[in-house]
Amino acid sequence: MNIIATQALTKTYGGGVTALSDLTVAVEPGVIGLVGANGAGKSTFIKIMLGLIAPSGGSVRVFDLDPVTETDKVRARVGYMPENDCLPPDVSAAEFVTHLARMSGLPRTAARERASEALRHVGLYEERYRQIGGYSTGMKQRVKLAQALVHDPDLLLLDEPTNGLDPAGRDAMLALIHRIGTEFGISVVVCSHLLGEVERICDSLIAIQGGRLLRADRISSMTAASDVLAVEVTERTDELATRLGELGLPVTREGRMLLVPMESDLAYDQILRAVTDLELNLHRLDQRRHRVAELFTAKETVDV
Ligand SMILES: Nc1ncnc2c1ncn2[C@@H]1O[C@H](COP(=O)(O)OP(=O)(O)OP(=O)(O)O)[C@@H](O)[C@H]1O
């Protein structure tokens, strides 16, 4: 079953900015990366799924519910971690997360227990009675994640969860998200402009550019083997390139690697023979895999 399905979803803001255009996508459960450059329309998509803003055209269903007319039902099943800093500095994490649990409808005692549990899951149990204002950026991001988890949702929508974190903090946050997705059985949509980050922890990707869908697929399909052979020798790469050229193979060089299209089954054997004839040490010879970054035509659109 799809957890999210859109049909020709479009959002035009006042002033004529089209943030989403004709977006049709069906999303299965799992850890899903929503990637695109700044301004691609990721936050707009998330806000529409939460019923915070209405689409200008097309439709969206979350757990087969309409976020516009069944907003409460959608929010009961969805946890949201916003991008911006939005935490009150003068209360403790325990008080804040308990308060949000109460707002989601839990009785007082259950709310307190669930808040402690959510803060334990994100690694803030020991620090939960300290005021949020004294927390580091990484701890604040964890509080935001805990409040998204507190009402035991089936889907988490995380908007740029690694924002402002140093490399170690990023790794820890990504590991935590991956654990939530795999161990808790909650589906997670991780929204990011950093393709390399989401690629590490997601099963599938939705890539958008300028509000339009580039591709939605499992990462394993996106990185399927290509019809190009990559060959690398430990030294004398130029000599091998010349020899392969003489054999009529169209060779291109990429750093220390030579790339040869597999136009026929012969290419593989010809390369091996050339390496042997020249008495070179073969470092690698394999079918090159597609890279997810190839999705984005212009290199500068995402940081890989
Ligand atoms: N409330 C608004 N009014 C007018 N234009 C808006 C509004 N919110 C977003 N936009 C515009 O819509 C486009 C998509 O913005 P959105 O925030 O959804 O992108 P994003 O992919 O989340 O980018 P970022 O990573 O920078 O948050 C941008 O051009 C943005 O300037």
Written overview of the protein:
This protein has helices spanning 42-49, 71-77, 93-103, 108-121, 137-149, 167-183, 195-201, 219-222, 237-246, 266-277; strands spanning 4-12, 18-27, 31-35, 57-62, 78-81, 155-159, 187-192, 204-209, 212-218, 225-233, 252-254, 257-261, 282-289. The protein is built from 10 helices and 13 strands. Residues 298-304 have low confidence and may be disordered. It folds into 2 domains: 4-222, P-loop containing nucleotide triphosphate hydrolases (Rossmann fold); 225-294, Alpha-Beta Plaits, CATH 3.30.70. The chain is elongated and about 80 Å long. A hairpin with a 5-residue loop joins strand 1 and strand 2. Helices cover 34% and strands 27% of the residues. The strands form 3 sheets. Strands 5-6-7-3-8-9 form a 6-stranded mixed β-sheet, sandwiched between helices. Strands 11-12-10-13 form a 4-stranded antiparallel β-sheet. The protein has a 3-stranded antiparallel β-sheet with strand order 2-1-4, covered by helices on one side. It has 304 residues and is of the alpha/beta class. It binds adenosine-5'-triphosphate. Adenosine-5'-triphosphate is lined by residues 13, 15, 17, 19, 36, 38-44, 193.
